Amino acid sequence: MPLEMKVSSSAIGTSIGPVVSKVERIDSPARPSPILCRTVTMPENTENASKVARLLYTNSGVGVLALGTNGVQKLWKWSRNEQNPTGKATASIVPQHWQPTSGLIMTNDIPDSSEKDAVPCIALSKNDSYVMSACGGRVSLFNMMTFQGNF
Question: Which biological processes are named by the entry's GO terms (predicted)?
């Protein structure tokens, strides 16, 4: 059931374009098995890629939130348009990297000690307004519209 996937933004500016290189899936009528993902990266450029530690869909289904091993969180949203009238997640449309006009970045505290011991965690509020996360350091709370943190 492994799935290898690489996420790259080099081809389409700030959007992501997943490239699936190997998929094996076994479905059972009683219980479909999930697809496992081995590696996902979220590069700004080829020299500065960060592995994704946690990845989740927004509760509304219009975006994907990734927490990188470097403590940075990134948000991709699907646009509402002719090809995607609902604006919800779909494999036929590439989501766009979204950031507030202020340019703020959601970054978690990363301790200087061993990164291997850290357990990255991420959770969204029911209405997708806030994200609470940690990456080995203190827990951070971010507003999803402004990316301002730790109120």
Answer: regulation of DNA-templated transcription
Domain boundaries in the chain?
3-143
Query: What amino acid occupies position 7?
Result: V
Per-residue model confidence as pLDDT tens digits over 26-81? 444 444 455 555 555 555 555 556 788 899 999 999 999 999 888 899 999 999 99
118-130 tens-digit pLDDT: 788 999 999 999 9
Q: How far apart are CA 151 and CA 112, in angstroms?
A: 24
What's the confidence (pLDDT) of residue 52? 86
Nearest to 3 by CA among 23, 31, 26, 25: 23
